[in-house]
Each structure stands twice: as structure tokens, then as C-alpha cells.
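Good morning,

Attaching, inline, the C-alpha cells for the sequence recovery test we're adding to the shared suite. The designed sequence is right after.
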């Protein structure tokens, strides 16, 4: 009876965790934007964030995964080094540099192209199977395209402005100079970041097969990424040594939040979900962050809300549900494959191999 009650919760665990992850990212958008407007260097932020995340995750990784942590060979270390470069150095520096030149709403909208890019890469590298002869296979493709169409709608079409119900509850200091959200520099940085993140998600799935210890992998990537980011920051801020100094203000709190929550806890959840459900499943929840950012910006910060954002949000949700419905078919395929292997190897009798 207990198993019957809690079985649906176990099935929904990856879904609920991914929703909570997007909530965590949503708050991260505004906290980091505030600290950047305050003067914090994005490159210094990434370095300190990785250090904080590594220090927090290390004790958990060391004690909880002592018996399951694989031996770290030179080849595996180089693979993790490359994974850290894409996920904890290059993509993060591009991400927060683009936030400096754009806005949370624009960046979170463009970030959703990662799902479509990851799906394409996953199919190309055979991490994702698409059977066009079955409805669920077609649903995965249509869900990805519909979500991408929703993101495009939110980005390109504004439409009439929705009336604000009240004034802003929280005031965020504006940027020192007005910057066009769709400026060339910000757009290039954002697109490059999306491509890098897509590659990182695919590499995660490959590395987890050889190093199935999510806490240890998170801690390793944090420390390696911190060293890589420090080198990058020394080059980028070579003429501004004071950039390394942060005070007891929003800069410190954003670094702590980014290190403990975003760089530590949420990355661990992403790795766990990637191992359980695959990289495409993880990235398809990114549109929720766009919706959360838009809602928070409208109701709390008093930013303008356009009709295009509302229409695009509904389209994104439709695409997300369609893809998730298609992904549920993968579970049945995995069960059939496992049973077939057991049957061919002679493990279990015929009755145990029936579906």
C-alpha cells in the first residue's frame, strides 16, 4: 500500500526538482544583475562563485560517495577538465557578461534555445532516440519546435503593454548607461553561451557514464572551474586589480547565493536529473525560468509586461508538456530493453520477462 501511494511521487521527483531548479535560477538572475549594476565584475563573480560552491560541496562529496566514487584516471581528469571549461568557465563568463549588456528577461528568453540545440546534439550523438513512426517520437520533435516558437514570440513580438497593477515593490539600480537589449555585442555573447551550454549538457551525459558520482563530479568541476576562471579573470581584469575586492554588501550575498544554491545544489540536481532522464529532459524545463522571470519582473519590480510575453509563455508551456509526454515513451522502451536482455541472458523465467 505504501509503495502504491509513493510511487507517483517517485516518478514525479525529477520533474519537481527541475521546477525548483528553475525557481532558484530565477532569483539568481535578479540578484546577480543587482550586484553587476553595483559594480561587481562578472568574471570575478564567476571565480568566487566556483570557489564557494567547491568548498560547500567537498565535504558532502568526500564522505557520502567514498564507496561509489570511481578512480580518477588521467584520461577521466582531462575529460572533467574539459567539462569544467565548458560548464564552469566559458559558459558562465559568457552568460554573466551577456547579462551585463542585456537584461534578465532577454537573457532568460534566449536561454531557452538551449533546449532545441541540446535536442539536435543529442539526436546527432545518439543520446536521444526519435522514432517518427510513433506518436511519442513525433511529439518530442513538435514539442521542441513549439517551445522554440514560444521563445521566439516572447523575444521578437511585444504587442500592447499590460497595465501595471501597482508600483514596484523592489527597486533595482538601473545600468549606468542605457544599453539596447538586442545590441550586437549582447546577442553574440548570448548565442555563444547557448551553444556552449548545449555542448556541456551533452558532455555531462557522457561523463556520468564513466563517473557516476554526482556530488564528487560537482565538487571537481567547481574547483577546476575556479582555477580556469581565475586565469581568465586575471587576463580580463589585468588593469583593474581592485575588481577582486568585494565588500559586505549585495556583491557578497550574490556570490554566496550563487555558490551555495546555483553553483552547488542546483548543479548537483542537474547532474542527477541528467543521469536519470537525459540532457534533453533537463533543458526542456528552461522555459519555466523565462516565465518566472517575466512574472517576478512585472509584479515585484514593476517592469513592463507585453502581450507577446503572455502568448509566448502559453506556447512554451504547450511545447514543454508535449515533449514531456513524448519523453515518457522512453521509459517503456528502457523497460522492454532491460527485460529483453534479461530474457536473452537467461536471468529469470519466462513469466518474469513478460510486460
Amino acid at each position: 500500500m505504501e509503495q502504491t501511494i509513493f510511487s507517483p511521487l517517485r516518478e514525479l521527483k525529477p520533474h519537481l526538482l527541475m521546477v525548483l531548479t528553475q525557481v532558484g535560477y530565477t532569483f539568481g538572475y535578479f540578484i546577480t544583475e543587482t550586484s553587476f549594476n553595483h559594480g561587481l565584475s562578472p568574471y570575478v563573480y564567476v571565480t568566487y562563485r566556483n570557489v564557494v560552491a567547491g568548498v560547500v560541496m567537498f565535504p558532502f562529496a568526500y564522505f557520502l560517495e567514498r564507496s561509489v566514487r570511481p578512480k580518477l584516471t588521467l584520461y577521466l581528469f582531462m575529460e572533467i577538465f574539459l567539462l569544467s571549461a565548458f560548464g564552469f568557465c566559458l559558459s558562465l563568463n559568457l552568460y554573466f557578461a551577456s547579462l551585463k549588456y542585456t537584461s534578465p528577461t532577454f537573457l532568460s528568453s534566449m536561454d531557452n534555445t538551449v533546449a532545441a540545440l541540446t535536442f539536435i546534439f543529442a539526436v546527432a550523438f545518439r543520446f536521444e532516440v526519435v522514432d517518427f513512426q510513433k506518436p511519442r517520437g513525433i511529439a518530442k520533435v513538435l514539442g521542441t519546435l513549439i517551445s522554440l516558437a514560444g521563445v521566439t514570440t516572447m523575444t521578437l513580438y511585444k504587442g500592447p503593454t499590460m497595465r501595471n497593477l501597482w508600483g514596484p515593490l523592489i527597486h533595482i539600480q538601473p545600468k549606468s548607461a542605457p544599453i539596447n537589449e538586442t545590441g550586437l555585442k549582447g546577442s553574440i555573447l548570448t548565442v555563444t553561451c547557448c551553444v556552449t551550454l548545449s555542448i556541456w549538457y551533452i558532455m555531462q551525459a557522457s561523463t556520468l557514464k564513466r563517473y557516476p558520482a554526482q556530488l564528487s563530479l560537482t565538487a571537481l568541476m567547481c574547483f577546476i572551474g575556479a582555477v580556469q576562471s581565475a586565469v581568465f579573470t586575471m587576463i580580463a581584469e589585468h588593469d583593474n586589480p581592485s575588481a577582486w575586492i568585494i565588500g559586505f554588501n549585495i556583491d557578497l550575498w550574490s556570490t554566496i547565493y550563487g555558490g551555495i544554491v546555483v553553483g552547488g545544489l542546483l548543479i548537483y540536481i542537474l547532474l542527477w536529473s541528467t543521469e536519470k532522464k537525459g540532457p534533453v529532459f533537463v533543458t526542456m524545463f528552461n522555459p519555466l525560468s523565462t516565465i518566472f522571470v517575466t512574472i517576478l519582473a512585472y509584479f515585484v519590480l514593476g517592469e513592463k509586461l507585453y502581450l507577446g510575453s503572455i502568448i509566448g509563455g502559453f506556447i512554451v508551456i504547450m511545447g514543454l508538456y508535449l515533449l514531456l509526454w513524448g519523453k515518457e515513451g522512453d521509459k517503456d522502451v528502457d523497460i522492454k530493453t532491460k527485460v529483453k536482455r534479461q530474457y536473452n541472458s537467461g536471468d529469470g523465467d519466462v513469466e518474469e520477462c513478460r510486460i
